[in-house]
Amino acid sequence: MTKESKIISLLRYLKSPSSAALWFILAIGFAGGVIFWGGFNTALEVTNTEEFCISCHEMEDNVYEEYKETIHYSNRSGVRATCPDCHVPKKWTHKIVRKIAASKEVWGMLTGLIDTREKFTEHRRVLAEREWKRMKENDSLECRNCHNFEYMDFSEQGNRSVTMHSSALASGEKTCIDCHKGIAHELPDMKGVENW
Question: CA torsion sign, 45 to 79 to 65 to 157?
């Protein structure tokens, strides 16, 4: 069989009814995949906004009110860290894992576990410990999105901060969350919390 006859044979096959059905199925699958991915990515981005985070009163009435009183909300430089900046990793795979884990918080809202200030306060320690553990395990990754150890100006820091940053952090023994618990939210009862 010559090269030309092979090409002609292939073109006949591609024009056949069975091949047309295959092309149609592939086209529908491709279009469906693009639509699904676009919708999924759009939904993911919508859930990465401060507006989404405080859309339930549990967050708006509790932690958001506390956060508005911190330097992460308002400061002299005008740089503001929003909820997703501190609670959602930037890398896609880590972001998906975090979103799945965050479904526990949505479940708490849906079931009424934390739907009042009293219930939220009662569960604050468990919620905080879960977040501290996550941040400890990822070496305070979200903090490091903005705060880079290499760019710290030790001459602008107090003596205690210089000592801690230059020894504990540099050696890798500690991470941001070890010392900066409560940086943006009220602390629960800290009795028994390690290193506190």
Answer: positive
Give pTM, 2 decimals. Answer: 0.75
Does 184 fall in a domain? no
Is residue 1, in this structure, part of any structural domain at all?
yes
Torsion region of 192: left, alpha or beta (phi above 0 gives left; psi -120 to 50 gives alpha): left
* Tokens 């009662």, residue located: 122
pLDDT for 169 equals: 67
How far apart, in Å, are the Cα atoms of 38 and each of 43, 44, 84, 182, 193?
A: 9, 10, 21, 37, 43
What is the CA 92 to chain-centroid distance, rounded? 9
Percent of the chain with pLDDT over 90: 27
Q: Is the pLDDT of residue 35 over 70?
A: yes
What's the mean pLDDT in 131-141?
90
Instruction: Please state the domain count of the chain.
Output: 2
Give the residue among 129, 116, 127 at the shortest CA–CA distance from 191. 129
Domain carrying residue 128? 56-179
**What is the rounded distance in angstroms from the CA atom of residue 189 to the CA atom of residue 72?**
23
